[in-house]
Design goal:
With 483 residues, this protein is of the alpha+beta class. It folds into four domains: 2-80, no CATH class; 102-175; 181-272, Pdz3 Domain, CATH 2.30.42; 284-425 and 463-482, Alpha-Beta Complex (2-enoyl-CoA Hydratase, Chain A, domain 1). The chain is 36% helix and 22% strand. The protein has 13 helices and 21 strands. Helix 1 packs parallel to helix 3 and helix 7 crosses helix 8.
């Protein structure tokens, strides 16, 4: 009978599978709980092995497998796996109800320490130790929190991102994910085409200077993009340190300015605002149009989603391009904030190129760093629909992450002509993020796990500069001028 105890060992290993699904589907499993469970499994396995006096042939391999099960779970599942305990690909964690939610000092410190735990574990810049400036800011913020009785979610978010911003990594930041209240007029026909000049007496440049340590960015243009996403919301105004009870905006269009003052009643949840049906937010992330008169096909890609809808749109467009003998093809990725870089390779399949060079990187996996050198990718051509004409890419400062990578591959492989503005992040910067929710405030946290190396290491520019530089608003007109 005692021999049968040996078969209890594999059952104890199922505990780890159970913990994985609990973390994924129900609630995040704290690290101390994971370690405690591992110790219990070790003790249980040891008792089972001691209980068995015979069946030595099975004791040795099962003993080894038991040790390996615990080691793999803890070393690779927790210590090295950047996605453990994260929100990435998992069910949604609870989010804060309001930017004015209040935390105690102790709760805020717990969240700050939680943020630092995963920053140390996952970020490439912290491999071998936390940079001194980050550590100094962390200590300063912790001292400030210890002197407070309470703090709001927004204020804590400002303090945590202040710690992260000195990494100069636009992918690593904290951000509250509650429902935002937007200025209703910002979606109106009356203000269409107007540019914001100032908010509560501060110009956008002054706001950027004031918020330099509150926002994580690499390119100053990306900081402006982040600020613009905030000042039309009550929550964002508070985050920027602006009074949101009475807000005065100055707008400009064609040399004419108008001044408007709003109260909190003029802001509403996005679902409560009547938005024009042709608003881009309501359209598919991928679409295209053919201008036969100009022999031009333009694909608009607002985010990088590598799925069947995208693949079909690309194939359909190049089918029409061939049928109508179109000589120019352009992809508009202005404002594309990134996603899956597989969209690049799928599009390149229809271009008559044999191979293209891809960026290198170093992937941080806990105490392991895995290098991937710059390399060549064979182009799996869609032979029946190959395009041999001119290729253009339209970019803006709001083009980010995989959007920037798209521009980098086009630029550094001399595949086409880039028109517009330099994308908003450094091709030699960080990316491939994991997401977390700080336990008490539920503040959203994004952390990079990879350090990228530009395709053309001798490019000589900090950003991916366009071949034809112009305002992103003028990029489409410039495209038509060029062709």
């Amino acid at each position: 009978m005692k021999k049968r105890f040996i078969f209890l060992l594999p059952l104890t290993w199922l505990v780890f599978i159970g913990l994985f699904y609990i973390d994924k589907m129900l609630t995040a499993v704290p690290l101390p709980v994971s370690i405690a469970v591992s110790l219990l499994v070790v003790i249980a396995d040891s008792l089972i092995i001691i209980r068995i006096r015979s069946g030595k042939g099975l004791k040795i391999p099962f003993s080894i497998l038991s040790v390996l099960a615990v080691a793999i779970y803890n070393v690779f599942g927790i210590a090295c796996n950047p996605y453990w305990h994260s929100n990435t690909g998992y069910s949604n964690r609870p989010l804060p109800d309001s930017y004015a939610d209040v935390l105690t000092s102790q709760q805020a410190i717990e969240d700050l320490d939680y943020m630092m735990t995963f920053l140390k574990k996952d970020h490439p810049a912290c491999y071998g130790g936390v940079p001194s400036e980050v550590f100094e800011r962390y200590n300063n913020v912790k001292s400030e929190l210890e002197s407070l009785d309470t703090i709001t979610v927004n204020e804590l978010c400002r303090k945590t991102e202040y710690v992260l911003s000195c990494l100069h990594d636009g992918h690593t930041y904290t951000f509250p994910k509650y429902d935002y209240h937007y200025l209703k007029d910002s979606y109106s026909d009356e203000l269409a085409g107007y540019k914001t000049v100032s908010v509560n007496g501060l110009t956008i440049d002054e706001l950027a200077k004031q918020s330099a340590d509150l926002i994580s960015y690499e390119a100053e243009s990306w900081e402006i993009t982040r600020i613009r996403s905030l000042y039309f919301t009550l929550e964002g105004l508070d985050y920027l340190g602006l009074d949101n009870t009475e807000v005065t905006y100055v707008f400009e269009k064609d040399g004419q300015t108008i001044t408007r003052t709003y109260t909190q009643e003029d802001y509403a949840l996005i679902d409560e605002i009547e938005i024009k049906s042709d608003n881009s937010a309501l359209q598919s992330f991928v679409s295209y149009k053919i201008d036969e008169e100009k022999s031009l096909a333009i694909m608009t890609l607002t985010s990088c989603r590598a799925n069947s809808e995208y693949n079909k749109a690309v194939k359909d467009m190049f089918t029409e391009v061939k049928e109508k003998n179109i000589r120019h093809v352009a992809v508009d990725i202005r404002g594309n904030g990134g996603g899956n870089d597989a969209v690049i390779g799928e599009f390149f399949r229809y271009l008559n190129i044999d191979q293209y060079k891809t960026c290198g990187l170093e992937w941080r996996l806990g105490f392991i760093k895995i290098p991937y050198p710059v390399s060549y990718m064979k182009n799996e051509k869609a032979k029946d629909l190959l395009f041999d004409g001119d290729f253009y890419l339209l970019t803006s400062s709001g083009t980010f992450s995989s959007g920037m990578l798209y521009a980098q591959y086009v630029k550094d492989n001399n595949i086409g002509t880039i028109i517009g503005e330099a994308p908003g992040n450094d091709p030699n910067g960080y990316g491939e993020v994991v997401y977390f929710a700080l336990p008490n405030s539920k503040i959203f946290m994004s952390v990079s796990t990879k350090h990228f190396i530009r395709v053309d290491k001798d490019a000589g520019t900090y950003l991916v500069e366009p071949d034809i530089e112009c305002s992103s608003n003028e990029a489409m007109d410039k495209l038509y001028e060029v062709i």
